[in-house]
Amino acid sequence: MSTSLLSLNDICMEYPGFKAVSNLTIDIKAGEFISLMGPSGCGKSTTLRMIAGLDSPTSGSMLLEGTSQLDVPIEDRGMPMVWQNFALFPFLNVQKNVEFPLRMKGVASDIRAKKASEWIERLGLSEFAERSIAQLSGGQRQRVALARALVTEPRVLLLDEPLSALDAHLRIKMQTELTRLHKELGITFIYVTHSQSEAFAMADRVVIMNKGEIQQVGTPKEVYRAPENAFVAEFIGMNNLLPGTLVESNGDTVDVVTDLGLFKAKPAMGLKNGDSAHMVIAADCIRLDNQGEQKVRGRISGEEFVGSVITLLVELENGQEFKVQKQQHEVEALNLKYGADLT
Ligand code: ATP
What we know:
Number of domains: 3
CATH class of the largest domain: Alpha Beta
Strand content: 25-35%
Order of helices and strands: EEEHEEHEHHHEHEHEEHHEEEEEEEHE
CATH architecture of the largest domain: 3-Layer(aba) Sandwich
Bound molecules: adenosine-5'-triphosphate
């Protein structure tokens, strides 16, 4: 998994008066599962469309194993796309839908029938081969779309929010299937989603984008535990940001003065004494107590209950509201209720 397969260098996509993607540079390895994530309009789909060949970048280069792809037409790029709405042909049955890309390539009918049947079987669709698309469930349609994309044996599969039309239960099931398929096939998956849980569950590395620019690239663990900037910290969710000023570096830690006191933190690259910065405090790394000496005082101002985990909102002395994530049994053991003072 160490060989670089696809390199995007300084890719830009400009519409009149608007830059949808700016200077996007990333190296994608052979066999990697990459997920592009970010809020609506950040340029995820535009990036995927440029990789597929559906849109041409205004500038930049794109190399597949060192060969430029920008002048290669879509059908020769070998990077098919699976869409959110599946984009299947309603007038063709399952078998013919899956055969379609091979027909476009001029593959002889007996060979394409055999190959399509193999993929139909592999994706557990054999009993539906003669059915029309209208007679299939959402999950079955999704599998047909996958079979149709994979029948050409691509080296890169592009997926644009492929699970968002499915209900929550099916989405989880398909996540497991996609992960299994990716492992079995060993091909590169580039997967666009705005669902953090999907990206974190499946991807080897995630690319966090905002306003057309990459904010961070890393494994799910890296972006979760070491967000590189305030945008990533907030986008990734259960983090609190506390503004402060760096006053001293002590090797592995720095002292940060905030309006809640002095704290030690892990330093970020490029920061020096006197710089303003945000401390990122993960919601599940905060200790709560309603007895004894606390470093920071607060009061519970709200709670969100999600299964066994509870997110408490704690209003601090400086007026900021922090999210604190705890297991339900911990909250009960400490008798932490709405309005409780954490003194
Ligand atoms: P979503 O999650 O909502 O699908 P996205 O991250 O995939 O969003 P893109 O579809 O890549 O976002 O769009 C990026 C930006 O480019 C958006 O602001 C969009 O309005 C703009 N855009 C896309 N296509 C065009 C176009 N043909 N002309 C002008 N602007 C466009």
